[in-house]
Design a protein that fits this description.
Helix content: 55-70%
Low-confidence stretches: 1-5, 255-261
Mean pLDDT: 87
Strand order of the largest sheet: 8-9-10-7-11
Radius of gyration: 34 Å
Number of strands: 13
Number of helices: 46
Length: 1020
Amino acid sequence: MGSAGEFRLLGPLEVLRDGRVVPVRAGKHRALLACLLLRANKVVPVADLVEALWGDSPPARTRGTLQTYVMRLRQVLGDPTRIVTTPAGYRLSAPPERIDVHLFTAGATRARELEESGDLVGARDAYAEAIALWRGPALADVPSESLHREEVPRLTERLMLLHEQHVDVELALGNHEQLVPVLRGLTADHPLREKFWAQLMLALYRSSRQAEALEVFRQVDRMLDEQLGVDPGEDLRAVHQAILTGDPQLAAPKAAPADEQEPGRLPRGLSDFIGREALVARLNGLFTEGGPGTAVPIVTLSGLPGVGKTSLAVHVAHLLRDRFPDGTLYVDLRGYGLGPPTATVDVLARFLRALGVPPEQIPLDAEESSTLFRSLLTGRRMLLVLDNASAPDQVRPLLPGAASCPVLVTSRDDLRGLIAMNGARRMSVDVLEPAESWELLTAMLGGDEDRAAVEELARRCAHLPLALRVAAANVASRPGGTVAGYLAELPADEPLAPVDLAYSALTDAQQRLFRLLSLVPGTDFTAEAAANVADIEVLRASALLTQLAEAHLLLRPGPGRYQFHDQLMLFAARRRAAQDDEREQADARARLLEFYVRSVDQCATLLYPDLRRLPSAPAPWVRLPRITVAAQAARWLDGERANLTAAIRSAADEGPASMAWRLADTMRGYLWIGKHVTEWLATAKYGLHAAQEEGHKAAEAAMYGNLALLHWKLGEFGTSEELYGHAMTLYQALGNKAGVAGILNNLGLVLMEAGDLAAARDALQRSLDLVSGPNGVKTARSTILCTLGMLAIDTGHLDEAHDHLSESLKISTSHRLRGSEATCRNFFGVVLRLRGEYEQALEHLAIALEIGLESGFREVTARVLESTAVTKVDQGDPHAALALAGRALEELRESGDQQTTTNVLVVMAESNRRLGRLRTADEQFQQALTKANRIGYQPTAARALIGLAATRRLMGVPAEALDLCARGLAIVVDIGLPVTEAAARTELSAIHLALGDAEAAAGERELAAAIHRWTGAKPA
């Protein structure tokens, strides 16, 4: 089935049957069908149909002719029951989600709701989905004057409003630059719609194109005067005036991370939480600040499934938030779900990130992470909520060591081991009291229900909150339904199974989606994931998800996201096993995994297009999320990270294995950029095991390379070299020269950072030889040449670096490799700066910065800003350098690249030293030195030592300066970094002068000058 339903009116009329278009050739038949579809599932009077078909000139035998047309339409539709004859007229029966007009209306409503709830990303996607349903003017080939007079203007106006709202959301998300061409098209197509002109002016203004924005106003002013003889409206004039005055309210919004992406965030509590006063009071007393003893207060809430343990824990946690100023940490341990429980190392990684630990500093070992977690909680006042624990061993590694951080655990079991060994207090959560059940049902159903009937319903639900909520939703969903009427339909005196009843009340489409969603291996899912698992349109899936949530069969953890209560997931899985054949289940699971793979691949193309990935095989059509820019790709991956990790594990364990390594491979760049080291390690290992099980050597090599990259970024150079060796052996056995070349290039980078420049040169030259010649891959050659250029800079061969980078730049620009071009121009700028050609350097750096900003390559952008800042320092403009360095740190706030962060700190310290802010400079150099030593980044450690020495000399302690500078010099001489050695010897000369040793000073000065003459580098 296509993306727009079974009946399409938003464009030329189309009918789809079994996925194929069925022609409706007669114009009168199209007019009749359109009229019936616009009022689907309602009786359309004969008079209205006559008006739609013939207007004021009906034929002599009107009713007979109409009956003939209806008969022909029934034949076209292939189902004579679709159009029903009634005494008043005709009714066409069709699910609303099968008609594109109704899908459009539902999509518009959903988008508006998402926008009002604050989920701008979800709203943007929903607006785009609804607009995409239009294939041209509505009813384009339907010959009906009355429909074109009454229905088409209404639909067109709704589309225009949707365009306006969609653009407003995109502007709120900061996507103004991408909107300019879109708005140019909208203003050209709809020149009298002033809202589009105002939005275009705003988008241009926010894109630093103020003159163009003002020219747009002059253009629309002339057009309105010439065509209508009127002036622009008040709103348009207000935007014009605000642009003229530079009104700060026009500034682009700063994107903030969505709350639901915050690790460890406490879920929203129930708005209608009822009862449990005694339990709440007891928990309140146990967690009162300043309680006796030094042991960690631990309370376990145990009880039956569906009794409301999680709701109670979350409710209490919200009530106690003021007592814990350092926050609350929450995790669902998934101890009773269909899949494996949440891994301890993943929970600890999530908590450590929430506590501010940089991603690359989170230990990969669970025990080390647990120790770090406990140490960070010392002195803090936090509440921990560990939900759905199935065993004490799940809980113990997550326990803090401070009494100021109590722990609330929920479990179906009593966790006696936790009570015996950790002093936990067990509180049993029982079913609701009858009065509480009555209160809950009354709140959900209204106060006009018969009390005796409500009490009987509560009794037959065994006073279980989950059962009560499902039953109440089931009653409320029945038109005119009452509790008494609902009970009358049930077998007398039998225990009530509300979930069974709620499920049986669902439509076939709702039941099928509910069952298949139990295949999702992750924690939650979106409408896109649901659409793929069930092979239906996204808007239809969204409507069905809303209906399931309204029936309390699904939960809504955040805007646009849904999840199961674990009991309901088990119920859905049992129904799936009983009702769906194995083939359908396998197909649904394959569609879901393909959706994840293709979506991540779409994001990878935007975020790291130059990163080599495994080739993707032809795949069936997938309903992808609407992602057009890198920032959207990063947000989508952030939201789906846990689900993607679960999908990889599921594919590795249950198959198809290829999905495991394909997903792990495409996620590699994202996990690298975000430094999500625990997920990175897990996904790479799952992918490797899957490849080895299947005997897929190319995938195995890619996974070894994936793991090698991870260990390289963690500073574990020996492990990285070993893993790259495994990958290279496999690629060599396959005869894959491109694979070997890529591995040798990465190995060269590892060896450079490890300080073995000779071995790095050998690896890079071998890599270049493999891709040279007429059959070589030019894009791969560009990357290797750029790396050789970086090496030549380090070794002081600036002419060689210039040649390598020139050739690399030529290839990357001709093949539009934007990421490679930005990186290449950045290092080209470094070469020119070292030669003293500052203006030319800044030209290359400006282009590289533009590419980084346009493409959303935050790490590249930060490196370019750092290089530009160094150039400004060398030019003698430390104020500008500080501003650039500050921007670089802002870019690095999310990516967490510690090497570039360390370099930026050195630039900031050097700028402050030049400005005479010696104490600030001293602190920043020390901070940079600590970071560099921690990650094993010796070149920048040497720079920090040399800068620290210059600062101490100026502070009047030349003896300390001498020791610091000598340490820095020893590092650069050992590695072989002549340019930095020249800087060290220049500083040593100044220190010797401060110590009164003119002869030693002259000697160092001469050595520095000799290095400068040899390298061609100009002294800063």
